[in-house]
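[step 3/7] inverse_fold.run input=structure_tokens len=189
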């Protein structure tokens, strides 16, 4: 299931980055520092060259230089997701949803980061928030993608819950049989 979601994520992220990476910014939001934009561009170039460490540093410096630059959060969060460093991705993307609470892509990526750590309930909540925002904006394509993610997360959570129930039942049975007194040997006559 994770491979399907990660594959979908790659396609979604590329198309969203090309079309709406900056969605969610308010018209009256402060202008992004040109140096911060340059740092995102440098980080992107470093990624293309395969220098992930420098890319991460550039994206982080961009956030520090201009905390209102969603593109820096997006790129840093996506980079951590691709590296399967889900706790780091969650930290970055929590910052993004705090700063950009009307940005559906921030919630979408946060859902993917939670899913990568098997934190299914927070993933479902974030995916649902992403869906709600996309729908409120009338973004049918974004809503469709968020709905697919949400459905996959719910299905995965159901399977995880079923597996947990079976494992718990097996553990209870093992504990019960270990505590049961051994049958008394039949008395010899």
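[step 3/7] decode complete -> sequence:
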């Amino acid at each position: 299931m994770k491979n399907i979601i990660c594959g979908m994520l790659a396609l979604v992220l590329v198309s969203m980055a090309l079309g709406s990476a900056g969605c969610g910014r308010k018209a009256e939001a402060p202008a992004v520092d040109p140096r911060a934009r340059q740092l995102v561009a440098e980080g992107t170039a470093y990624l293309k060259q395969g220098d992930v460490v420098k890319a991460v540093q550039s994206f982080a410096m961009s956030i520090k230089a201009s905390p209102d630059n969603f593109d820096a959060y997006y790129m840093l969060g996506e980079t951590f997701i691709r590296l399967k460093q889900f706790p780091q991705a969650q930290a970055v993307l929590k910052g993004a949803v705090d700063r950009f609470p009307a940005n559906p892509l921030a919630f979408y990526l946060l859902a993917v980061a939670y899913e990568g750590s098997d934190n299914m309930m927070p993933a479902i909540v974030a995916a649902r928030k992403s869906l709600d925002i996309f729908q409120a904006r009338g973004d049918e394509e974004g809503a469709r993608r968020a709905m697919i993610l949400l459905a996959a997360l719910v299905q995965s959570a159901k399977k995880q819950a079923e597996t947990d129930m079976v494992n718990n039942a097996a553990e209870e049975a093992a504990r019960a049989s270990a505590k049961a007194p051994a049958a008394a040997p039949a008395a010899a006559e």
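[step 4/7] annotate
Residues 1-28 have pLDDT under 50 and may be disordered.
The CA atoms of residues 23 and 103 lie 6 Å apart.
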